Amino acid sequence: GNSVTQMEGPVTLSEEAFLTINCTYTATGYPSLFWYVQYPGEGLQLLLKATKADDKGSNKGFEATYRKETTSFHLEKGSVQVSDSAVYFCALISNQAGTALIFGKGTTLSVSS
Amino acid sequence: GAGVSQSPSNKVTEKGKDVELRCDPISGHTALYWYRQSLGQGLEFLIYFQGNSAPDKSGLPSDRFSAERTGGSVSTLTIQRTQQEDSAVYLCASSLGRGGWEQYFGPGTRLTVT
After folding, report:
1. pLDDT tens per residue, chain B (114 residues)?
2. CB within 10 Å: which end of chain B, N or C, has fewer?
3. Do A43 and B31 touch (CB under 8 A)?
4. Cβ atoms of residues B105 and B32 within 8 Å
5. Do A106 and B100 touch (CB under 8 A)?
6. B42, B59, B91: residue with CB nearest A44
């Protein structure tokens, strides 16, 4: 079945460090891929998305590239800030099979100054 | 404009009681989803409504769970005879349509079953 696997957290970084959160997926067909973020005490927000192979999603300095050959959608940011501390979820929708988002288990990022 | 709203924000109930959770989607969004977020299971899909089509109930964990959507807008998730394992944050989301459309999430209802 369809699934998303993302790296276990927590990830602890100093301000201005480089961030990578790995995400790989298993899906039939050609899924759309998403990163959602949940800041402390807030709801889930879409961070970025990509709907086809080689697309790059970007927002707020974060980027992720849809890699069909490696079934990956890794999240990166060149210089993290304390305000980036949150839980990050990788997710997919399989355009063939379904309608609901399938989420990874989430990665907690903690950035210290 | 207004986002997805959910009520109540917190609900504490005794085991065996029924609860109703409400979701008001973004106006004009035809698709509405319910998810559950718990420590052990992460984020799980529960049920999906699209327009006037029959809902996709494939994610409901048991027949104690049901949901309806009235007039293509407001939705209510009902849990009968609550159990402690039902304790979780219940999230509602809406979107313009199915598939790759962005889903906008509400703040959630935190349910605690004692």
Report:
1. 589 999 999 999 999 999 999 999 999 898 999 999 998 778 999 999 988 888 999 999 999 999 999 887 999 999 999 999 999 999 999 998 765 578 899 999 999 999
2. N
3. no
4. no
5. no
6. B91
